[in-house]
Amino acid sequence: MSQVKERKLTIARAMAEAIAIEMRTDDKVFVMGEDIGELGGVFGNTRGLYKEFGAERVRDTPISETAFIGAAVGAASDGMKPIVELMFVDFFGVCFDAIYNMMAKNTYFAGGNVTVPMVLMTSTGGGYSDAGQHSQCVHATFAHLPGMKVVAPSNAYDAKGMMIASIRDNNPVVFMFHKALQGMGWLGTEKDAIVHVPEEAYEVPLGKAAVVREGTDVTIVGITSGVHHGLKAARELEAQGVSAEVVDLRSLVPLDRDTVIESVKKTGRLIVVDEDYHSYGMTGEIIASVVEAGVALKAAPARVAYPDIPIPFTRPMEQWALPSPEKIVSAFNTMKEI
Amino acid sequence: MKPSQEQELWMYKHMLISRFFEETIEKIYMEGKSPAFNMANGPIPGEMHLSNGQEPCAVGVCAHLTAEDIVTHTHRPHHVAIAKGVDLKAMAAEIFGKKTGLSGGRGGHMHIFDPKVNFSCSGIIGQSIGPAAGAALSRVMQKKPGVAVAYLGEGAANQGAFHEGLNLAGVWKLPVVFIIEDNSWGISVSKRASTAVERNSDRAVAYGMPGEFIEGNDPIKIFEVVGKAIQRARDGGGPTLIEIETSRLAGHFMGDGEAYRPAGEKEALQKIDPIPLMQQRLAKEYGFSDADDAAIKAEARAIVDEAIQFARDSEYPAPEEAMEKVFV
After folding, report:
1. What proportion of chain A, given as a percentage, has pLDDT over 70?
2. CATH number of A277's domain
3. I need a surface site. Which of A43, A148, A303, B237 has the fewest CB within 10 A?
4. Complex ipTM, two decimals?
């Protein structure tokens, strides 16, 4: 019996590998952004592409997000498949019009006669004292606005498959990657995000959540860092004799409500974890979706999210405010039984 | 580069189609909106930005373009859409919000998309620029023929998107021409009150590209200057910034009282209406007779009437079709 050799990659490597595979087979695919060329991307996700494909297809841009994201919209509508990087998602403030008024609306305004097949990849998350202009997730800000798919993998296998699926998608896709999961040592490394990644091309479908741990007593729903906090919390809860199921949403748009609802039908309890802000966010959306579906609950749902404050710099404040496995365990232990 | 007689006649005819179209839209727009003016009422609801007076900017540029060239435009798009060859029936139906419209009624007058002739526009000031640069880049990368033309108003030259987009086009030497339609008014604020330089074309030096200012709202001068710029773009010589002095004979939008206009300005502009001036030019240069003029006007009128009738006769989309075409 032949054994498949394990090939563990970081999310950064998996993303670069996915882009390279698509660039080799489709000459319409190209990459644009700040420092994505020779440097290989500040977060490593374009490493090696410049050397293989050159400056024409791996284009360093001026610090002009409105221009190059707008340009990607124009290029995508003219037959190309651009992948653009918004270095930190926090920077959306300087270019959001190109994203939500152009990229996300042109297909609809054109009655489906114009397509915008582009990928906007962008880093999220904090935990390394970069403060509130370089640490946000703003998942809900993007997911709230119609016309763009929004995905965010939590491990390297999904990152490769979802990047390939994003590039091949006919619609604009916002591909968020969490900095602490990226596998860059200088940002801290979540070891569970570094997993076996097959060499060949494969797709992980967009809009499909994954049950990453099965359980019967409580459903913990998360995305990116929230999944890893959830898995760690599940291991702690196991020691208490509690069986926790963990759902990795993977996509915010389209949102796989069915997988979440099915899980909560089984467990009767729900905790939603999000590094994005508490109010008006993904946590509220998930809880509302479960409640609207009429799922019989054994306890009031709980959320573990970032407080409604700008993200502070100093270590004690920053770490105190972040979601954590301990907060999830505590949320379970203080759930109000119905 | 002088236009041929045939090109001048094409320009005149499309100026007429555009003007007749706007005049017809203006009348229909007011249906159901009096005595009380409510923008939501009538067969054409919503904002309406008419292009009366700006026709030379459309025909002097588009005379050099074919369907494969790309044009991105603004919230005031009808004249350029017409000169670019957008299907007028489908465009009229879109403006009426009908199922037969270019986008099935989802876009309306500020969001005209006709991929058959590579025309698109955006209601956001300055957002014609990035997409045009990107489409130009696409042609270079695909080694496909075609240039991009981004239209913008003079007010958009004070947007960040202008600075970013022109710098990008300049540094990558993209085959794109930026056309500023300077009608001297950003809604109610004059160019003088909003712009630190007299001519936005002077800003071209900051982006490493030639800048040209064209006075007089003259389609022939526009044809000549823009023709060189488009040829340079086609030859790989990079982008150009051109500002055209034009006139907005209508308000910013329908319903605009225009109290901000200095007394006599509009009357003065009407005296230099480019359409009669073009007719006089044709008469002088080519012996274009009153009978010739009546014939071309009748032809233009018939094209407009047919498009408007098509729009009127078309059905509305089913409301729930609103849920379609978000993703494709």
Report:
1. 99
2. 3.40.50.920
3. B237
4. 0.96
